[in-house]
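Figure 2 data, in text form.
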Amino acid sequence: MKKIITAALAATLCLTALAGCGGSKDNAAGEVNVYNWGEYIDMDIIADFEAETGIKVNYTTFETNEQLYAVLKDGGSTYDVIIPSDYMASRLIEEDMLETINYDNLSNYDLIDDQYKNLDYDPQGAYTVPYMSGTVGIIYDTTVVTEEVTSWSVLFDAQYSGQILMFDNSRDAMGIALMYLGYDLNTTEEAELQAAYDLLAAQRPILQAYVMDQIFDKLESGEAAIGPYYAGDYLTMRENNENLAFVVPDEGSNWFVDCMCIPKGSANKENAEAFIDYMCGTDASLANAEAIGYTSPNKEVADLLELDDAAREIMYPSDAVLANCEIYKNLPTATLDLYNDLWTKLKA
């Protein structure tokens, strides 16, 4: 695995100068505007796609699903491919913010494992194509945290004050608090959500920072010692700090599927479908999984990856681990408003 690009650079990157950029075809095939998470693609794949198709890729990144949603609500139809998580894809479908995909244009779609198709967020399989999946867990520095970590409780332990990081997005942070308290990850009960907020408010004084991709530098350098994040990113971090470990806590966690979608109003829908199809191919899927450490839905990739036992266990968690995980669901408007209110209050 390798760390592809810093979030600060990726957030403003426009790949118009990459070698291959379809220059030999004078960009006759047009362009495609892709909006993805930071640290979440092998950039060489984009150059290969441009060289093969002549389609220029304009690539930018976001840090949270909520940021993606806000951008789309504020005129984000300039994007042609977006990669939200499951629950956000469901919300975008419900709010009529996505185009239907012509799967006849996806020659590689048959390579996607059936377990990733027609999931609850897109039960008819009309709007999404799986991109990557993974789990959320705790990443910690074993030279600082010498005890065995099995619970979310370590994130709320005052003995590690100033060394703890926390997600800088409401759904993941509240989700961790809910799981630690024994509540359902998708609860709509106001009292349970208030209890989760109270736990996060009590945690705030012992935190070093709320982070998203900033967690890479902080944990790799030893500036911080503990933080929750995504399994694939741990595999990237451990290459730069061999003292880091990863665990899915006993209370359970989130299993997520991120998916490729086309926003309503895309000006380059056919190019978007060409990009999505390319990403589903075995060569691209394998390169992407090797680079970013997430689980590819392409059913041929698992046997092609060269992984040590620890990495394979993380990329392909056991049935027991997955049985203890939940997938986020889109929540009612009133609950989403409560999330926003509580999060704004927490960060004030």
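Caption note: Strands lie at 31-37, 56-62, 81-82, 129-141, 164-167, 207-211, 226-230, 244-247, 253-260, 325-326.
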